[in-house]
Backbone:
């Protein structure tokens, strides 16, 4: 094989490798959608549930898809809601309203409360979706993403109804100052 042909093959291999690298970056940047089955509403911006996906397993001569599910807390990214254990009565009251809003959005108000477990509800809606974005976990280990209820963003609904405000991960603003609670 000539030196010219070897150089051309090396260049082709380098271009192919660069293309694969660009594809990997593009895939990593896009949001992923998972089946999400809510189990409990912790507060206005945290929902506990099963995150489920299908994995393809290839064995000699056969392929099969197998469901995998893991239960964990999902932090609704891009929104800040008041804290249930906040610094003032106004914040704690607003936090209860935000949590009730999320319960209602997930049809939790029609569900059955589990005796002795204040925050656990069986949701009549079978599943909603979660999209994970960019950094997959927050500093508390919660999965980050937006919960979609029948295609509508829970993040945007919290903001639109005044139960939360847009949050980019920077400094949080208090909910106790005049005008701090919507």
Residues:
């Amino acid at each position: 094989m000539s030196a010219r042909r070897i150089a051309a093959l090396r260049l082709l291999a380098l271009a192919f490798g660069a293309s694969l690298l660009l594809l990997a970056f593009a895939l990593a940047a896009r949001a992923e959608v998972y089946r999400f089955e809510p189990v409990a509403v912790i507060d206005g911006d945290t929902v506990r549930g099963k995150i489920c996906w299908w994995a393809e397993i290839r064995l000699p001569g056969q392929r099969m898809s197998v469901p995998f599910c893991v239960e964990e807390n999902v932090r609704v990214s891009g929104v800040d809601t008041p804290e249930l254990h906040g610094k003032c009565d106004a914040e704690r009251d607003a936090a209860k309203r935000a949590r009730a809003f999320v319960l209602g959005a997930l049809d939790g108000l029609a569900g059955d409360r589990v005796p002795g477990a204040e925050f656990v509800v069986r949701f009549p809606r079978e599943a909603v979706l979660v999209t994970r974005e960019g950094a997959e976990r927050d500093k508390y280990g919660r999965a980050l993403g937006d919960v979609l209820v029948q295609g509508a963003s829970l993040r945007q609904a919290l903001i639109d109804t005044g139960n939360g405000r847009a949050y980019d991960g920077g400094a949080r603003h208090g909910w106790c100052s005049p005008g701090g609670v919507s």
User: Anything to note?
Assistant: The longest strand covers residues 62-76.
